[in-house]
Amino acid sequence: MSPRILLLGGTTEASRLARLLAEVGADAVFSYAGRTETPIPQPLPTRIGGFGGVEGLAAYLRGNAISHVIDATHPFAAQMSRNAVAACAQTGVKLLALERPAWMPGPGDNWREVETLEDAAAALPVAPTCIFLAIGRQGLPAFTPRPEHFYLLRLVNEPGGDLLLPQAEIVLARGPFTLENDLALLRQHRIGLIVAKNSGGTGGSAKLEAARLLGLPVLMVPRPVLPARAVVAEPEDALRWLHGADRGV
Ligand code: 3Y8
Ligand code: NAP
């Protein structure tokens, strides 16, 4: 019985795996949360929107005869990952996480790790500074207690309501980003510090390379701790896992 796969997406690695699955004609469905207005089209049948918590996901798995879930969501998509562990345990569906390793500081990096975005806001300099908040939209409220700084925000879509940050400029862009682009962005806006989440991967790492070249400090927020589950780092490893399943191992 060949696997029927639910691929929880939203990352570069998920898109790479979707192409591999489409190439081998796998029976797979790609899933987006519907966080952005026009997500990148995928070469697999695609569903968009939440499942309705653990129970909703379990019902989806049963109702669609899913035999394997690959959680290729972002390391900060902790709720989705926790729900996938719980729903797969409930239904007996096999689960594999496809997750890239965290970024590690190297020679020339000037990183300071802070536990949360609120801690990052508290750790901002005293003197008004140009801050690149490369954390998307959901975490912005953490910085409202620090209105004295100028914020450069990179968002996928225009934010809905008021940003509550009096000195902010928005750049609308969907990665993956290039070193050339991020160097120009940091220089153009005279950025003095970057706040980033330790997302890993290649789609958002250019800002860190640019920071190193420009000698800029980075406040880095580590990724949330997730429940124990089988994890691979490369789409090809996920395909091998499925192949093993195909042979009934
Ligand atoms: C909706 C799908 C692909 C996937 C591309 C990766 C790379 C480019 C870098 C910066 C950091 C940030 C953000 C980021 C990156 C990739 C990847 C990645 C960071 C899209 C996408 C969806 C989302 C959701 C969005 C979040 C936001 C986070 C922007 C598509 C483009 C900051 C994470 O407005 C919002 O509500 C946006 C929400 C979750 C974090 C946040 O809290 O705001 N991603 N990003 C997915 C869905 O609906 O299921 O629109 O096409 C995917 C990608 N974003 O296929 O090539 O693999 O990480 N995404 C972070 O890393 O800190 C930008 O600007 O330097
Ligand atoms: P989250 O906080 O972990 O999830 C919140 C809720 O969104 C989940 O409980 C689920 O709703 C729904 N959801 C999340 N991912 C989904 C998916 N792939 N398919 C269907 N429903 C999904 O997630 P998030 O951090 O908002 O991330 C949302 C999406 O953006 C994910 O696809 C993630 O891969 C992508 N993304 C996130 C980041 C980031 O920084 N967080 C960065 C890049 C890409 P129900 O409970 O109703 O099922």
Structural features, described:
- The structure is a single chain.
- The chain is of the alpha/beta class and 249 residues long.
- It folds into two domains: 4-101 and 225-246, Rossmann fold, CATH 3.40.50.720; 111-221, Rossmann fold.
- Helix content is 30%, strand content 22%.
- The protein has seven helices and twelve strands.
- The strands form two sheets. Strands 3-2-1-4-5-12 form a six-stranded parallel sheet, with helices on both faces. Strands 6-11-10-7-8-9 form a six-stranded parallel sheet, covered by helices on one side.
- Helix 3 (78-91) links the parallel strand 4 and strand 5.
- Helix 2 (53-63) packs across helix 3 (78-91) and helix 5 crosses helix 6.
- The protein is elongated and about 65 Å long.
- The termini are close together.
- The model has no long low-confidence stretch (mean pLDDT 96).
- The structure holds ligand 3Y8 and NADP nicotinamide-adenine-dinucleotide phosphate.
- NADP nicotinamide-adenine-dinucleotide phosphate is lined by residues 8-11, 31-33, 35, 50-53, 56-57, 73-74, 76-80, 83, 136, 197.
Specify the helix fraction band. Answer: 25-40%
* Poorly predicted tracts of residues: none
Please tell me the overall pLDDT.
96
Oligomer: single chain
Major sheet? 6 strands, parallel
Overview in brief:
With 249 residues, the protein is of the alpha/beta class. It has helices spanning 12-23, 53-63, 78-91, 117-122, 179-188, 206-214, 235-246; strands at residues 4-8, 27-32, 46-48, 68-71, 94-98, 110-113, 130-134, 150-155, 168-172, 193-197, 217-221, 231-232.
